[in-house]
């Protein structure tokens, strides 16, 4: 989140020409978004001095050059006094943002590799500006805000599970919520539903059939598709070998024992097998 | 006869010669260009244009080029894009490299004259492109008509990332050179071939976030770099603080044929990147005809960059043809880009008319009044009335040579 800071200079001491600038901004804003009938609150900076008013009235006749300046001063004090009366009723706080403020100059020289290599410069590389230091109280609020954001996000994501019509199955919903959270964190889904074994087998077989078909068609049409990775190939070969073993019944124990080696009428268990059974 | 061969399109004059040939190659339609400089004192094709035809014939397979005796008429029947090495060349790896030697007569144009159309063809090729440009006419610095190779690499090649063409792009300057004289060497690798470029929507120009640049000296004092950079920074420092201009020093210009030293010179290339990755660039260099000081070059280059940014829009002048060509070849969907009114020049309108002649889509031009509902809108209404929106319907021709996997 970009941190917007209130300009210290503007909020504390609105200069007389600041009022004129504000008027321009206001006119511009109203032209775009329609009229606004809220009087902006100007903070009473200096209490209107009682001695000032008679002095200005005295000067009116004599000093015409200073007239405009005094006028704006007068209107300024007027508006501040009027606003202070309505301050208690509905305080509208006007916050001014200072857009002209720029960040500090990048301290580290960008590495020439990002720009001067023979590759087109990538758009993602940015000169890293050091993060702005926050005060302790600001940091605390920042963490609190972040926490709230996170809570709101999870609530929004799981709100459909909290539907009043579905309250009868709370445990299921809780599991669903948990699963959605795991998924959002990049985990794997808990389970893929209860599919009967024979259907699962059919699905696997169909999947295999499909891949084989695409490979075959690609070969016939002379299209080169991506090679099977070395690991995937190894795994597939391994599986095939095991399947063959199972099918033939060679070396497999009585009733296809899943442990040890059946050779010469005896089931031989290695040290590891025994340890595995103990564990 | 008409049904068997596609109808030949006829164009006149030598304007936008390169792009017409590229369009013909991309769409696969034969063209005939007549009255090429028929009233000129040097009628017919110029050396650099002939050189471009040679490059095109090596980049494609089975193309037919017929030039009339006077050189004022050209018939071009395009072949398939993609280079097949000749069978009698020995090793396969070496023969995949296309070596394009540019003759000394065509050194008035920079090597980007050849690089730009090569890159437009490259995504639609059957095989990756690996082209080495060399010879006495190979000029890497900016010339009066062409931008420098630095600008090409930093401002034109990134445009392809809008179309998700990012992998295996490389443009290396092996030897720098100035016009005239040349003797430079540039390697271009374009290994990202696609089936169909995706539809592009570029509507938010954003605000400038950084400026980078290269200033180069060739056979002159390296101090000139500092002078150029200083002058450019004098202009640019008041706008933004993330500026970095690299300097490249080559102590001797590459030797020409007779063993003589090539033309010395210096120049600068500046690139401004916006928050939405839109790119504006400027380029200027020394010339043998006019004397310019390094300060003039630096300041002039910076001012040109500022001028280019002022024109606004998402695509600058030198990149707009590349973007439009890729959009025209894209899928049959409406893509939109927002460009500044200053970008639309006579040449650009001619380019669009050529696309129409080739049977590709028309362009819908609309006034662009600010960014509708786009967050972080550009200049906050400052550029109102300066921008137009181009709606381009792709033709879905895509890459003919590439098989569907």
TrEMBL record, chain A:
InterPro entries recorded: FSAF1-like, Ribosomal_biogenesis_FAF1-like
Region of interest (Disordered), ranges: 41-140, 226-279
One matching Pfam family: FSAF1
Highest taxon in the source lineage: Eukaryota
One of the GO biological process terms: maturation of SSU-rRNA from tricistronic rRNA transcript (SSU-rRNA, 5.8S rRNA, LSU-rRNA)
UniProt GO cellular component terms: nucleolus
Ranges of biased composition (kind: Low complexity): 53-67, 75-87, 117-131
Comp. bias regions, Basic and acidic residues: 240-253, 263-279
Protein name: Uncharacterized protein
Organism: Arthrobotrys musiformis
Lineage, highest ranks first: Eukaryota, Fungi, Dikarya, Ascomycota, Pezizomycotina
Automatic annotation (TrEMBL), chain B:
Keywords, ordered alphabetically: Nucleus, Ribosome biogenesis
RNA 3'-terminal phosphate cyclase domain span: 12-335
Domain of life (superkingdom): Eukaryota
UniProt record, GO biological process: endonucleolytic cleavage of tricistronic rRNA transcript (SSU-rRNA, 5.8S rRNA, LSU-rRNA)
Residues in RNA 3'-terminal phosphate cyclase insert domain copies: 204-310
A GO MF label: RNA endonuclease activity
Entry's Gene Ontology cellular component terms: nucleolus
Location relative to the cell: Nucleus, Nucleolus
Family matches, as InterPro entries: RNA3'-term_phos_cycl_insert, RNA3'_phos_cyclase_dom, RNA3'_phos_cyclase_dom_sf, RNA3'_term_phos_cyc, RNA3'_term_phos_cyc_type_2, RNA3'P_cycl/enolpyr_Trfase_a/b, RPTC_insert
Family: Belongs to the RNA 3'-terminal cyclase family. Type 2 subfamily.
NCBIfam families assigned to the protein according to its UniProt record, in alphabetical order: 18S_RNA_Rcl1p
Protein name: 18S rRNA biogenesis protein RCL1
């Amino acid at each position: 989140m970009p941190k917007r800071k209130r300009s210290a200079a503007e909020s504390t001491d609105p200069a007389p020409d600041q009022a004129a600038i504000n008027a321009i901004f206001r006119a511009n804003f109203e032209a775009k978004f329609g009229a606004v009938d809220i009087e902006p609150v100007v903070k009473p900076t200096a209490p209107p001095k009682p001695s000032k008013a008679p002095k200005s009235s005295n000067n009116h006749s004599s000093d015409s050059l200073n007239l405009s300046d005094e006028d704006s001063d007068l209107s300024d004090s007027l508006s501040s006094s009027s606003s202070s009366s309505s301050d208690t009723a509905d305080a509208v706080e006007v916050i001014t943002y200072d857009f002209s403020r720029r960040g500090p100059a990048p301290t580290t020289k960008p590495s020439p590799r990002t720009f001067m290599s023979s590759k087109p410069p990538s758009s993602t590389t940015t000169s890293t500006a050091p993060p702005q230091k926050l005060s302790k109280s600001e940091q605390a609020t920042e963490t609190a805000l972040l926490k709230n954001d996170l809570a709101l996000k999870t609530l929004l994501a799981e709100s459909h599970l909290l539907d009043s019509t579905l309250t009868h199955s709370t445990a299921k919903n809780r599991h669903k919520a948990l699963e959605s959270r795991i998924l959002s964190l990049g985990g794997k889904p808990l389970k893929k539903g209860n599919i009967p074994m024979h259907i699962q087998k059919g699905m696997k077989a169909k999947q295999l059939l499909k891949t084989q078909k695409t490979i075959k068609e690609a070969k016939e049409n002379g299209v080169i598709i991506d090679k099977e990775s070395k690991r995937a190939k190894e795994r597939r070969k391994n599986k095939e070998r095991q399947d063959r073993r199972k099918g033939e019944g060679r070396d497999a124990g009585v009733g296809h024992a899943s442990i040890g080696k059946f050779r010469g009428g005896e089931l031989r268990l290695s040290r590891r097998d025994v340890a595995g059974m103990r564990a | 006869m008409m049904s068997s061969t596609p109808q030949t399109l006829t164009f006149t004059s030598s304007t936008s010669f390169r792009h017409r040939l590229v369009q013909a190659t991309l769409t696969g339609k034969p063209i005939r260009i007549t009255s090429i400089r028929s009233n000129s004192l040097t009628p017919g094709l110029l050396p650099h244009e002939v050189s471009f035809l040679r490059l095109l014939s090596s980049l494609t397979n089975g193309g037919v080029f017929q030039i009339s005796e006077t050189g004022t008429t050209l018939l071009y029947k395009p072949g398939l894009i993609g280079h097949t090495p000749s069978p009698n060349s020995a090793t396969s790896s070496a023969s995949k490299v296309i070596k394009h030697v540019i003759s000394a007569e065509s050194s008035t144009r920079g090597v980007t004259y050849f690089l730009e159309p090569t890159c437009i063809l490259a995504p639609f090729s059957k095989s990756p492109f690996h082209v080495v440009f060399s010879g006495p006419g190979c000029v890497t610095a900016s010339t009066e008509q062409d931008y420098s190779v630095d600008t090409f690499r930093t401002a034109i090649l990134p445009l392809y990332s809008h179309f998700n063409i990012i992998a295996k792009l490389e443009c290396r300057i092996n030897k720098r050179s100035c016009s005239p004289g040349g003797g430079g060497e540039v390697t271009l690798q374009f290994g990202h071939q696609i089936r169909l470029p995706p539809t592009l929507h570029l509507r938010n120009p954003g605000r400038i976030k950084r400026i980078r640049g290269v200033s180069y000296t060739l056979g002159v004092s390296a101090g000139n770099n500092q002078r150029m950079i200083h002058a450019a920074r004098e202009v640019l420092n008041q706008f933004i603080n993330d500026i970095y201009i690299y300097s490249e020093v080559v102590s001797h210009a590459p030797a020409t044929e007779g063993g003589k030293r090539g033309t010395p010179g210096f120049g600068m290339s500046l690139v401004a990147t916006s928050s939405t990755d839109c790119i504006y660039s400027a380029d200027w260099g020394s010339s043998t005809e006019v004397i310019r000081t390094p300060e003039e070059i630096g300041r002039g280059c910076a001012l040109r960059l500022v001028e280019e940014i002022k024109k606004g829009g998402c695509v600058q002048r030198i990149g707009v043809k590349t973007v439009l060509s890729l959009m025209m070849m894209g899928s049959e969907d409406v893509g939109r880009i927002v460009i500044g009114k200053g970008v639309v020049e006579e040449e650009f309108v001619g380019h669009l008319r050529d696309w129409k002649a080739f049977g590709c889509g028309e362009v819908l031009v609309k006034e662009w009044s600010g960014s509708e509902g786009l967050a972080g809108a550009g200049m906050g209404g400052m550029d109102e009335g300066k921008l137009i929106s181009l709606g381009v319907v792709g033709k879905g021709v895509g890459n003919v040579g590439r098989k569907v996997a």
